[in-house]
Amino acid sequence: MTLRRRQRLGQYRIESRLSVGGFASVYRAYDTIEGIRVALKVPHQDLVDAATLSIFRREVRVVAQLDHPNIMPIKTAGIVDGIFVIVTPLGIENLAERLKRRMSRATALSYMEQLLEALSCAHRRKIVHLDVKPENLVLFPEGRLRLADFGLARVAFRTMSASGSGTVGYLAPEQALGKPSLRSDVFAAGLILWRLMSGQLPEWPFRWPYPGAAKAKRAYHDDLLRLVRRALEVDDSRRYPSATPMLQAFRKVHGKALR
Length: 259
Description:
The protein has nine helices and nine strands.
């Protein structure tokens, strides 16, 4: 089902559709009570049943624990005019859109650190995201980055019929086999870091040197390249066990990260 421009859902007036994914569509809407614009995530109706809604309500309670400036908060989630809706703040754009334009190395490093901050917060609570990708990294004013769709990604993983869910380009090998862990998020984060450094996305079998290695070597310190290579180990036992030690390692190299 597609919502139309100016259609009303309770207190929300639809303004435009922002994106369509495998599990949900995202709309820009105006909250007529609060007087602000918000993002409405509307799961595809054929994927929403009583069991899925029950799972998602549990996930909302889990995500509510993640009170962190780099994690997208859920304003509310529930049935509005017969449609299940997840309401979040509306950002300026996502990282996938931002990657289409030139970016300073200082900005890239800031986004890297904020991503690892978000994942570390979740991983300390043993919460895995499962779909870390540029489209789920939403940018706000003053350079703020927020990781979105924790609950949605986890529900999608449980409910979709594929052996492993997630976005193919950012899927860790073991997650593709249906055996995800915190280390799977580490792998996806490593891919995003490399794309920020080189402008290119490594692909299977993830052998060094990755695409764009020459550019990355010119711009960034070898220690940062080694950090990303460890995150992208195909054997997950050789990766960082979670984003927390990866963040700690990133902080150690941050001061000398730029050439």
